[in-house]
Amino acid sequence: MPAHRRSLLRRPPAAAPAAALFTATAYLNVTTGPHGWPEHHFGYQPGHVLAQVMDPDLPALPLTFVVEAPDPRVAAVKAAAIGRRLTVDKHASYWPLPLRRLAVGDVVVLTPRTPTAGKRRFWALASGGHLTELELVDGTLRTPPPAP
């Protein structure tokens, strides 16, 4: 088959999923044990005390970042990378130097900015760079039960 006809038979590449915008807000796990040492290094547990990260330049406002991703899990990974000072958000905002980085046991809340992106989601940073999705039950964040 001539080369000029082969190009007509090719299928166009599959379209990438539409990216949604999320607002990411971080909460630091400030739970301490009876000995006074932080306990967040063992991961988030229901009942741990979380403190919302406030913007050091505007103390009355929470520190937020805008993340663009095709789904909430990817957005959570991007938000965690911003909190660990590995990258910047959509508007080139970065994690402030005076604040401690996000670590195991801290929580990232993703609020969709587009109506098609779903509901607000909660993600706890776990060891090895993994994320655990949490659900809000009676005012407490818990790990959802395993699917049957």
Describe the structure.
The chain has 148 residues and is of the alpha+beta class. It has one domain. 13% of the residues lie in helices and 27% in strands. The chain contains 2 helices and 7 strands; from the N terminus they run αβββαββββ. Strands 1, 2, 3, 4, 5, 6 and 7 form a 7-stranded antiparallel β-sheet that branches. A hairpin with a 2-residue loop joins strand 6 and strand 7. The radius of gyration is 20 Å and the shape is globular. The N and C termini lie far apart (53 Å). The model has no long low-confidence stretch (mean pLDDT 85).
Set out the fold topology.
Layout: H1 3-9, E1 20-29, E2 50-52, E3 64-69, H2 72-83, E4 107-112, E5 121-125, E6 131-137, E7 140-142
Antiparallel strand pairs: 1-2, 1-3, 1-4, 4-5, 5-6, 6-7
